[in-house]
């Protein structure tokens, strides 16, 4: 059994929440039980995740509260969400850009580790904050081979947009809705992302940058999975990953 305050203090320090002035209101968004025996993880703060969670603390990448959406109008949907958190005494902790940009536990860092991308450096600013990672593979690979590695890394299918070199070595990593990464000159031969939006299609094509899009949801599980093992070891708590897939 661990104390909520100790886990939160560790997360705030490790994820360096104070460095990120962004839209997401990171940190504790709802406070429940003071004691934690099981920590649940989910990509999104949603009713489905709240109902499925068996822990006393739920850590998510996309929280409930965003500055641009405040103040919230409490309708039936929001009331049901809050009532569920209150009934279960379930604390909610959100980490958006802090989990994207973390050099060891971040979504992009974990993707780099699984793909074998080295010599990492920050690139691709979101809201003025660089959160992507650019690096190199040990040797150049056929684009389709790298795409298969991405699929293995996330456990799902990826779409390939072959706009550039048939063999790639320089890789840009921006998980989630990271299509904006193609606008950064440091992106390299290929951008590995989650969602590749319509608005960035022609930029990538005209710049000759390949894109591998493996899904917003799938690519943003990675940092949470890395954090899961850290909390198990440090606090001796049980952990679980709560699946609420969007297919996007």
Task: Kindly list the characteristics that best describe this protein.
about 250 residues, alpha/beta, Udp-n-acetylmuramoylalanyl-d-glutamate--2,6- Diaminopimelate Ligase, Chain: A, domain 1, 5-stranded mixed β-sheet, 9 helices, 13 strands
Give structural notes.
By secondary structure, the chain is an alpha/beta fold. It is built from nine helices and 13 strands. The chain has two domains: 2-96 and 221-240, NIF3 (NGG1p interacting factor 3)-like (Udp-n-acetylmuramoylalanyl-d-glutamate--2,6- Diaminopimelate Ligase, Chain: A, domain 1, 3-Layer(aba) Sandwich); 100-219, NIF3 (NGG1p interacting factor 3)-like (Udp-n-acetylmuramoylalanyl-d-glutamate--2,6- Diaminopimelate Ligase, Chain: A, domain 1). Helices cover 34% and strands 29% of the residues. Helix 2 (47-52) links the parallel strand 4 (38-44) and strand 5 (57-62). Helix 5 crosses helix 9. It starts with a strand and ends in a 7-residue tail after the last strand.
Give a brief rundown of this model:
The chain is an alpha/beta fold.
The global form is globular
Radius of gyration: 18 Å
- Strand numbers in spatial order across the main sheet: 7-8-10-11-12-9
CATH architecture of the largest domain: 3-Layer(aba) Sandwich
Under CATH, the homologous superfamily of the largest domain reads NIF3 (NGG1p interacting factor 3)-like
Distance between the termini: 36 Å
List the helices and strands and how they pair.
Blueprint: E1 2-3, H1 4-14, E2 27-30, E3 35-36, E4 38-44, H2 47-52, E5 57-62, H3 76-88, E6 91-94, H4 97-101, H5 107-115, E7 118-126, E8 129-142, H6 143-154, E9 159-161, E10 167-174, E11 190-193, H7 198-207, E12 210-213, H8 216-219, H9 222-235, E13 238-241
């Amino acid at each position: 059994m661990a104390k909520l305050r100790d886990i939160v203090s560790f997360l705030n320090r490790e994820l360096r929440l104070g460095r990120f002035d962004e839209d997401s209101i990171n940190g504790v968004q709802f406070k429940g039980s003071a004691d934690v025996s099981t920590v649940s993880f989910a990509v999104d703060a949603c009713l489905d995740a709240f109902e499925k969670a068996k822990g006393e603390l739920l850590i998510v990448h996309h929280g409930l509260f965003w500055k641009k959406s405040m103040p919230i109008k409490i309708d039936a949907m929001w009331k049901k969400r809050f009532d569920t958190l209150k009934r279960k005494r379930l604390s909610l902790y959100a980490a958006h850009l802090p989990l994207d940009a973390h050099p060891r536990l971040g979504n992009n860092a974990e993707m780099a580790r699984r793909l074998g991308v080295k010599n990492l450096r920050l690139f691709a600013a979101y809201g003025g904050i660089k959160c992507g990672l650019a690096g190199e593979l040990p040797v150049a690979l056929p684009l389709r081979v790298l795409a298969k590695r991405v699929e293995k890394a996330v456990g799902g299918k990826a779409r390939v947009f072959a706009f550039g070199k048939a063999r790639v070595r320089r890789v840009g990593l921006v998980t989630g809705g990271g299509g904006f990464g193609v606008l950064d000159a440091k992106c390299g031969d290929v951008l590995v992302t989650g969602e590749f939006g319509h608005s960035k299609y022609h930029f990538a094509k005209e710049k000759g940058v390949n894109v591998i899009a493996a899904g917003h949801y799938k690519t943003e599980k990675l940092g949470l999975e890395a954090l899961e093992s850290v909390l198990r070891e440090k606090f001796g708590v049980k952990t679980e990953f709560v699946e609420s897939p969007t297919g996007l």
